[in-house]
């Protein structure tokens, strides 16, 4: 039991972020978040407000997650517990943002299915699916970051 706590109480740096939980989720978060960004940007934006929120969330989370990953890779956290708490808080906020964006995107997609060309509808459906997958990734990262934070 003590060995599990010891390994969770360390924040990884360098290549360690690619081999430890929850930090291994950075790359899938970036990939799926980037796909949401690309798919929403490539469709016709009919109701601008909800899709603008989806674009903001996907771009914001992509950029911040990338910066967060670089800080962790460079060891800028200096293995402090406050960084573990900040990791938990950021991923919790990102999960909440992505959930709100996913629901808004799904509602808009359902509302425009009759008025939109089939290709745009397929792109919107893909964006909804990837948005929910990204939400799940951020949520799992939040839970695992909370466990790590509690072990500090």
Number of strands: 0
Question: Helix count, per DSSP?
Answer: 5
Q: What percent strand?
A: under 5%
| Sheet with the most strands, sense and barrel status | none
Q: Can you walk me through this structure?
A:
This protein has helices at residues 2-8, 26-41, 48-74, 81-111, 118-150. Residues 1-6 have low confidence and may be disordered. The chain has 5 helices and no strands. It is mostly helical. Helix 2 packs antiparallel against helix 5 (118-150) and helix 3 packs antiparallel against helix 4 (81-111).
List keywords for this structure.
152 residues; mainly alpha; 5 helices; 0% strand; disordered N terminus
Per-chain topology:
Blueprint: H1 2-8, H2 26-41, H3 48-74, H4 81-111, H5 118-150
Helix pairs in contact: 2-3, 2-5, 3-4, 4-5
Quick recap of the structure?
The chain has 152 residues and is an all-alpha fold.
């Amino acid at each position: 039991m003590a060995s599990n706590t010891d390994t969770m109480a360390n924040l990884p740096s360098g290549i360690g972020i690619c081999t430890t939980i929850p930090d291994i989720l950075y790359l899938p978060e970036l990939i799926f978040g980037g796909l949401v960004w690309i798919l929403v940007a490539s469709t016709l934006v009919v109701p601008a407000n909800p899709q603008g929120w989806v674009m903001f969330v996907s771009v914001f989370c992509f950029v911040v997650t990338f910066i967060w990953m670089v800080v962790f890779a460079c060891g800028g956290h200096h293995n402090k517990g406050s960084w573990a708490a900040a990791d938990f808080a950021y991923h919790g906020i990102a999960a909440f943002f992505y959930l709100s964006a996913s629901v808004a995107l799904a509602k808009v997609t359902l509302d425009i299915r009759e008025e939109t060309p089939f290709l745009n509808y397929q792109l919107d459906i893909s964006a909804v699916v990837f948005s929910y997958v990204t939400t799940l990734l951020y949520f799992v990262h939040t839970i695992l970051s909370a466990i790590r934070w509690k072990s500090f």
